[in-house]
């Protein structure tokens, strides 16, 4: 390729990137989270039932943009996410993944765990598996909320929010979130806290600007 | 302004499950009510086997309520209430309501090395107790060792060996005869148990033997004048395996038998001694359990009546909802002097194979069907074929 052609190509690429950078928007804000409920204790009714209970994860929320078209160069999810079972808790207790994401469930305890779900978005049962074996995994191929349970330790609860959009983020434990790389336009921003609580806010995203959105709670 | 919406489904039972608990603001006090509603039907080709009472097919609904209460990290209590047609299906056909378990437990250390417990609760003997409720038991009935009624009675001493041996030729008299272990044996007393590394131990001092009938389990009905002590020691080399040994020793005769005993002997002269071993293994979709036990009943005017019983049980999850289970049970009876210079087996040897299919519709609804085939080595059969179905709602 001749030097002038390379220069032109570089200029075009740079121009495209600049336009793309200027064309994306951001959103940030805070979701008012519920107070952390005190730790549920597993009832061990009979002798010979093992295990010490760890503290559960503080409440968080999933914030996602609804109605926005995916980017032109969008690709199916190929990443792998882990949810560990340790101290008889799922960690993290809440994850958000894109449709098609593979989630592994390593066992971090010295005793058996199990993971199962009867949710419509994904129905599975991974059986009983040990700490040292290859973690069993599930590919979440349908959007929806998948509730996770362990048949051995009934108090254990986990949630996978499977989304059909690349525009999502999980808040920190203070409820703070920041979404970047969003398309410009008018959409809905949703905050999902649990099966009973979720909120939505209209949002007007402008290129190069950051929209401030707070979810004050009920 | 923000609008609430429902993301996903919320069903009634899950809401009920979540709402039946109370917790103080900092979690020091937590109490949770949960329950099982069982609807069972038994279809039998002959007279009902095991601890199924009545004379024919049987319909047996049951409501079980559990109140689990934690006070701080050291105190725990459990109350189990049941309303049904008797502790054993059909034993009180007009209906019954009872507190089957109530206990208070103190756990001074968080690692569980020591627990001290008092009340009315399941025996520490064996391993089956830990999965005996209808939700966890892959079958509808108990293993043979926990329900096969033998000719041993707790209510009167036989007048002679011939009378004792003659019971083999009649149908089970369940109101007066005993199995080796009567189900979970919710007897009254105190226990100490805990975990030390890969070992766990349990010791209990109770008011009645592990073979005793439900009407003998309450302390006000049967005190501790003739106690039973039981213990279990188990080792868990890794998460997949667990094996243990159990032992139990104590008087099995009720006060009603006192007047029928030979002169100079009391209830404490006649004891049940049982030694058992259990082994369990699980991995992925498989769970396998096995137990074997040898029991000796000291029978007035007869001598030592020994029996050996065992079972091997396997469960496999075919799909997230469907599981299958199979169990092989057998009980063999030794000989006792027949009073005429010879010796005879004191009861009929029996084998039974149990098969079951279960379907978990949701986390709150389960259905099971069981088919069992058994055969006793004698002319009298106790339900050679049993077909049972059970629907369980859990909340």
Relevant terms:
heterodimer, A: 218 residues, mainly beta, Immunoglobulin-like, 2 domains, 4-stranded antiparallel sheet, 1 helix, 41% strand, B: 395 residues, Porin, 16-stranded antiparallel beta barrel, two-stranded antiparallel ribbon, 2 helices, globular, disordered N terminus
Helix/strand order of chain B: HEEEEEEHEEEEEEEEEEEEE
What share of the residues of chain A lie within helices? under 10%
Gyration radius of chain B, in Å:
22 Å
| Fraction in helix of chain B | under 10%
Task: Give the largest interface.
Answer: A-B, 45 and 56 residues
Overall shape of chain B: globular
End-to-end gap of chain A:
62 Å
Low-confidence stretches of chain B: 1-10
Strand content of chain B: over 45%
Give the domain tally of chain B. Answer: 1
How many angstroms separate the termini of chain B? 36 Å
Please indicate the percent range of residues of chain A in DSSP E strands (runs of 2 or more). Answer: 35-45%
Radius of gyration of chain A: 21 Å
Strand order of the largest sheet of chain A: 13-2-15-16
Name the shape of chain A in a single word. Answer: globular
Spatial order of the strands forming the largest sheet of chain B: 2-3-4-5-6-7-8-9-10-11-12-13-14-17-18-19
Uncertain parts of chain A: 7-22
CATH class identity of the largest domain in chain A = Mainly Beta
CATH architecture of the largest domain in chain A: Sandwich
Q: What's the topology here?
A:
The complex is a heterodimer of chains A (218) and B (395).
Chain A: H1 3-23, E1 25-30, E2 62-66, E3 80-82, E4 84-86, E5 89-91, E6 94-98, E7 101-104, E8 113-119, E9 122-129, E10 137-140, E11 144-149, E12 157-163, E13 168-170, E14 176-182, E15 185-192, E16 198-205, E17 210-212
Parallel strand pairs in A: 1-17, 3-7, 6-12
Antiparallel strand pairs in A: 1-14, 2-13, 2-15, 4-5, 7-10, 8-9, 11-12, 15-16
Chain B: H1 12-19, E1 21-23, E2 29-44, E3 58-71, E4 75-84, E5 96-106, E6 115-121, H2 161-166, E7 187-196, E8 199-206, E9 228-238, E10 241-251, E11 271-283, E12 286-299, E13 303-317, E14 322-333, E15 335-337, E16 343-345, E17 350-362, E18 365-376, E19 385-394
Antiparallel strand pairs in B: 1-2, 2-3, 2-19, 3-4, 4-5, 5-6, 6-7, 7-8, 8-9, 9-10, 10-11, 11-12, 12-13, 13-14, 14-17, 15-16, 17-18, 18-19
